[in-house]
Amino acid sequence: MKREEKEVIISSIAELLEKYPNVYVADTSALTVEKTNQLRRTCFAKGVKMLVAKNTLIRTAMQRRDDTAYNDIFGALKGTSALMFSETGNVPAKLIKEFRKAGNDKPLLKGAYIDTAVFLGDTSLDQLVAIKSKNELIGDIIGLLQSPARNVVSALQSSGGKLAGIVKTLSERAA
Q1: Cα angle at 96 between 75 and 40, to 5 degrees?
Q2: Which of 50, 151, 157, 165 is deepest in the core (most CB within 10 A)?
Q3: What gap in Å lies between CA 119 and CA 135, rounded to an integer?
Q4: What is the topology classification, in CATH, of domain 3-131?
Q5: What are the tens digits of pLDDT across the range 63-105?
Q6: pLDDT for 114-132, tens place per residue?
């Protein structure tokens, strides 16, 4: 591979690192071409960008993007490495888990960079699946905010006649 070709690959990886806040490094070795294509189609359907490149090119792009942020992931860059880029932190983890449920033992998670947190090893996959997306968190907060209001409205509706009786009794006592 010529230097110019390497530079193009490094620049494209650096651009993707700039665009996507969440990056997964996965081991896709020993997947057949058919399984790899199936994984790529699944990634495309879920909005995950998947890219396979040499570890040295990945490392150079990460260093170019941020000199220190990705240092902990460098140890995971061994063997075959596929990068999965996503806007949502838990989507690639869910995708990997679903793909494995279909009878595949790969891809294995080598590491993940979620916003500023680093997760290493395949044992982190369950933690990554449990991470809530921004939209899920907003939904939870809205639900929590609506809950007390619903309780008040429900109490007022269910005891509306009782409240009117209490007000009438109090007004009779005052007179």
Answers
A1: 95
A2: 50
A3: 22
A4: Alpha-Beta Plaits (3.30.70)
A5: 998 878 888 999 889 988 999 999 988 899 999 999 999 888 8
A6: 988 899 998 988 888 888 8
The angle, 0 to 180 degrees and rounded to 10, between the axes of the packed helices 91-101 and 33-46 is 140
Of 44, 51, 45, the closest CA to residue 12 belongs to 51
Integer Cα distance of 101 and 138 in angstroms: 29
Question: What is 51-116 written as a DSSP string?
Answer: EE--HHHHHHHHHHH-TTTTGGGGGG--SS-EEEEESSTTHHHHHHHHHHHTT---PEEEEEEETT
**Using the 8-state DSSP alphabet, how is residue 159 labeled?**
T
pLDDT above 70 for 108: yes
**Residue ranges covered by each domain of the chain:** 3-131, 135-174
Task: Measure the CA–CA gap between 43 and 50, rounded to whole angstroms.
Answer: 7
pTM value is 0.76
Residue 95 phi/psi, 5-degree rounding, is -60, -45
Separation between Cα atoms, residue 110 and residue 62, nearest integer Å? 16
